[in-house]
Specification:
homodimer; 260 residues; alpha+beta; Glutamine Phosphoribosylpyrophosphate, subunit 1, domain 1; five-stranded antiparallel beta sheet; 6 helices; 12 strands; globular; peptidase activity (chains A, B)
Chain lengths: 260, 260
């Protein structure tokens, strides 16, 4: 599995992704799931990928190849588009291209070709924008109400994001939040693994502000993980204990074919 | 969906289950997923159920019917068995019976017949025991290393359980922990819904100690939920902010057909 998060703030965008891939539990490797296209002063695009690695790498290869070929007005590339919306459409088109080529195999093995993508960045004077792109090539955009996207193994890391995330956070605070969300996920699912790639994009910088690979022995991450565990246990202890009451239960009704 | 937890402690067992069932988002109802068989002074058995309601109710009905029919040495019932291990086998046999009857429909609609069960309680002088029983009728037992079982929508509520749960907790503390785990789940997944049924079994009581249905407006649950949110935000604020470094990333390797 994979866990990736993109979080759009007023001050920029923070991205984080794990690096574990597996083809069976005895065939595990480290691959970056964070892909960066940067043209300093003009645009920065960051894409996080989850799902079948053959599929997602093909999409990344198509996007990269098209950048290095001469511009073609019929086939916009990540370097020729003028808005992030258009960039998301370019990624969608690349996804659909891979699906067309692999059509027969997808029909035979639908599970093998599942994938999802987070695309964020800034082009020129436009605001930084963040999209989640589905395996069908369609996409949605982050809004102040819903400022982050998670792909892959998203459930374990959701509660803390849901409680704390707010677009007016500082970027360093947002990075801390994403790492805590990773900490919860790493503790619960072995198939999400260190190191973690983290990237901070500051609004209007038009270049990657900070990019770092956080290894297992990273001092900050270890401190964060320990401090969070202690803080949670401490918070838990200080909440009032449950004092039950012998209240009668309503009788159980009977019905069928519902899903509980 | 459903969320149910059973947590075996040195002092007894605490159970909690939600009550939401749905057959589509426009067809939602409240059903207890907690089933209790109690013979005061002799045995208490509690079963939590997740999955297709037609399936789980059939299993419960078979178990209940067999209790009220005359004892048959060939067909032990929850009232005739002398250990919790035997009780788990009786539940497993009931599950297999339903699957035999519905064999053709299960083959046609495998998804419809998914279900899982948590069975716990105490019989006579035996220690309280807790089992998770699979839809195939086989089962595993809780141990001090792994004192709780979750069924249904278990991921959102796992991080807090994983960090805090310990078999030497007081029962009221364990109940608080299960309710916090529910709080995280309820916030993240609409298909898990209030009210929550909670049941506390005290070791050697041989009767249900406390059983309560916690409604949406329950004062303790509201207080717990608010206090926990505040404590988490507070803990979050007090952890050092991330200070990134411009560290170069290792180059991305290329390979195929792995799953990221």
């Amino acid at each position: 599995m994979t866990y990736c998060v993109g979080f759009r703030l007023d001050r920029g965008i923070v991205f984080a992704s794990d690096t574990r891939t597996n083809a069976g539990v005895d065939n595990i490797a480290t691959f970056s799931k964070m892909h960066v296209w940067e043209l300093k002063g003009d645009r920065v695009l960051i894409m996080l990928t989850a799902g079948n690695l053959a599929f997602t790498q093909s999409v990344v290869s198509i996007l990269s190849e098209r950048i290095s070929t001469p511009p073609d007005p019929e086939r916009p590339s990540l370097s020729s588009v003028t808005t992030m919306f258009q960039a998301a459409r370019v990624v969608g088109a690349a996804i659909r291209e891979v699906r067309r080529v692999d059509k027969q195999e997808i029909e035979d093995n639908p599970g093998l070709f599942s994938a999802s993508f987070i695309l964020g960045g800034q082009i020129g004077g436009e605001d930084p924008r963040l999209f989640q792109i589905y395996k069908e090539g369609n996409f949605i955009e982050a809004t102040p109400d819903n400022p982050y996207f998670q792909i892959g193994e998203h459930k374990y890391g959701k509660p803390i994001l849901g409680r704390v995330a707010s677009p007016d956070m500082r970027l360093g605070v947002a990075a801390k939040l994403l790492l805590l969300s990773f900490d919860s996920t790493l503790r619960s699912n072995l198939s999400v693994g260190m190191p973690i790639d983290i990237l901070i994009y500051r609004r209007d910088a038009l270049e990657v502000s900070e990019r770092r690979r956080i290894q297992e022995d990273d001092a900050y991450f270890k401190k964060l993980s320990t401090a969070w565990s202690e803080a949670l246990r401490d918070a838990f202890v200080h909440i009032d204990e449950y004092e039950g009451a012998d209240t009668l239960m309503p009788p159980v009704e009977v019905a069928s074919s519902r899903r509980g």
